[in-house]
Design brief:
46% strand, four-stranded mixed beta sheet, mainly beta, 2% helix, Immunoglobulin-like, 17 strands, four-stranded antiparallel beta sheet
Amino acid sequence: MRFTPTPCCPAEFSRWLICQHQVEIEIWPASAEVYFLDERFCDPANTQVRFEAAVCNAPDAQVLWAVRAADGGAGRGSIDSTGLYTAPVKNGLPSPCMEIVTASAKADPLRRAYAQVTLIGKGPPDPPPITLLLLPKRSCLYYRNGVNTGFIDASNKQQVFRALLTNAAPPLTWAINGPGTLVASNTDLCLYQAPDSGNDGEEVIITVTLQTDVTVHDQAEIALVNYSWSGIVP
């Protein structure tokens, strides 16, 4: 008797399970510490770190890289297609600050591996302070037409003031509080001219201010006097 095998119906195939290995991905190093990109006194090489990733059980070994913040938001650093992570500038970020680097398998983007990056440093050096010094700080001038001021040279009735500005640039604003005339521009020089007459010891305040930052300013004082000599007979 000859045995003839009975062909399997398609339904029989549903009883068989086809096993396939799951796509796996691994990243290293698992953690790294880098400095902020604008860190003071730092070797630029220490502001970057290279990550490597291996994909298993997939026809495509390509990796998709991304950076996320620790809270899941957008990362501040960046990473290129080769896995080279570059730290961000500090820009108010705390130190230390943590970010997450993710490596996803292109063949199955749901398969991911994670690494931790810790950002440290103080950032760039503080900018040099802006200083403004007005010179001379105090002057004594004569009225133009006092009791006997006609005998006083005109150079003693006016004063040139200079503003020494560092770590910033004009324009400057000049102001006067008291009698007299101020011949000024927005540069670092101004000329003060005494009034014709007045009381002895009257005070005048000259103020110069940086227009782009009004908190930067300085002042100078002027004392106005009459020239009177009893030996001169009118």
